[in-house]
Amino acid sequence: MAINLDSLSPAELRALIKNAETQMKSARKNQVQEARSKIDALLKATGLSIDEVYPRLGGKGRKGPKAVVAPKYRNPENVAQTWSGRGKRPIWFSESLKKKGVSAESLLIGGSVPKKVSAKKAARKVAKRASAKKAAKK
Asked: Number of structural domains, the chain?
């Protein structure tokens, strides 16, 4: 059954596309169901479970609940916003660092460093980090 697309109007083409998409979703659903039934039959025939075949997907691969890390940094403008120091930096953290006189150390929870750090101390700290990196590379 060939359809001459050149003779169809834009409205007819849209309807055809919509019908084709609906048919494609239905075919995909059927394909997934068939694959699942084949897998279930194979597992039943071999006496295995999905947990044994794919331990991480089945949930047994994990030893326990994921550990929660205590927050390390706090937003001074909104104390409800904290960050553990792991993963992507939150926007409030990055924005705070752009402000003059604010450093990551000044955003630490408890025992924070004074906001103003002298230029000499900052220069020493940068030099110390650079020398540590060079030593690590060797």
From this structure: 2
Distance CA 129, CA 119 (A): 15
Condensed to tens digits (0 to 9), the pLDDT of residues 57-114 reads: 545 555 666 778 888 998 888 888 899 988 899 999 898 888 888 888 888 887 544 4
53: left (phi over 0), alpha (psi -120 to 50) or beta: alpha
Residue 58 to residue 102: CA distance in whole angstroms = 46
Q: Are 93 and 99 in contact (CB under 8 A)?
A: no
Residue 36 lies in a domain: yes
| Residue-level pLDDT at 50 | 85
For residue 3, being part of any structural domain is answered with no
> Which range of residues forms the domain containing residue 43?
10-54
Q: Are residues 41 and 77 in the same domain?
A: no
What's the whole-model pTM score? 0.38
End-to-end CA separation in angstroms for the chain: 71
* 31 and 86 together in one domain: no
CB 73 within 8 A of CB 95: no
